[in-house]
Amino acid sequence: AKERGRNTYRFYTPALNRASERRLQLEMGLRSALERRTLELHYQPLYDLGAGDLVGAEALLRWTHPVHGAVPPSEFIPLAEDTGLIVPMTAWVLEEACTRMREWQRVLGRDLRISVNLSPRHLQAGSVVEMVRGALVASGLSADSLELEVTERLLLSADEAVSRQLEELREVGVRLALDDFGTGYSALSYLKRHRFDVLKIDQEFVQGAPSNAEDASLTAAIAAMARSLGLQLVGEGVENEDQVGVLRSLGCDLVQGFHFGRPVPGATFLADAAGPNRT
Ligand code: C2E
Ligand code: CA
Ligand code: CA
Ligand code: CA
């Protein structure tokens, strides 16, 4: 047993060191990317399913590390949360996204809206309300053009401070969207306690609905619930016509997904938005 322990130790140490080394390099890289403003936002279009009009975009962070290459948000967002970098990062995302959208509204002469993701751990650890107000003032974007997305999981652990912030954000006049809906086991009571405007069905259900009976009935139940609560329903992760068909039959309001448009740099988003509609 002793010997096996030794082998295990010898076998795993280099891998562990490599993992913590990568983490350390990413943390330093993220710090410097924030200072040098080399993080990027991509924008994924959001369409009205009935009318086919472009209604806005979701801002999604992109980061290319000088040595490690493209690092996915699923890796660097948790790192930003652990290190506190999520605070300056979110401040930058909000100001950048609002500024771009204000510019596009002017150029296109249309009231498009912009969605920004908020980290649950950020909302739990501190306030984002002043940051949101600051971004609106700095950009000149009107509050009703900004939508803030929080995941359903936030509500499971929502304390007084989180509830108060959500309430204050409503008073500021921004829209609130509940993201990844269906994955966080939220009870209806949470939805009643915290007032949201938009419900985004998780892509897992959208993608499963055409072929999987369980996903289909969950999607239908979520759609019915959104309607009865007066929430706008967004289907995300839409990749094909079959999924569009299901969402149409359920009266889904807005759609987002590779079938309609991938997340793209701002200049591409603007060029596409100025062209013909895609739905
Ligand atoms: P999310 O908010 O649920 O964003 C949707 C994710 O699904 C994005 O991944 C998007 O690129 C991807 N997606 C969109 N349409 C499709 C589709 O048709 N098929 C498939 N397979 N995927 C699709 P991404 O950009 O990698 O972001 C992953 C997550 O990272 C986001 O999930 C969000 O939770 C987080 N994230 C991204 N940007 C930010 C940010 O600025 N702040 C915070 N706090 N979180 C962010
Ligand atoms: Ca989102
Ligand atoms: Ca989502
Ligand atoms: Ca999304």
From TrEMBL:
Keywords: Membrane, Transmembrane, Transmembrane helix. The keyword Transmembrane helix applies. Residues 23-277 form the EAL domain. This is EAL domain-containing protein. It comes from Gaopeijia maritima.
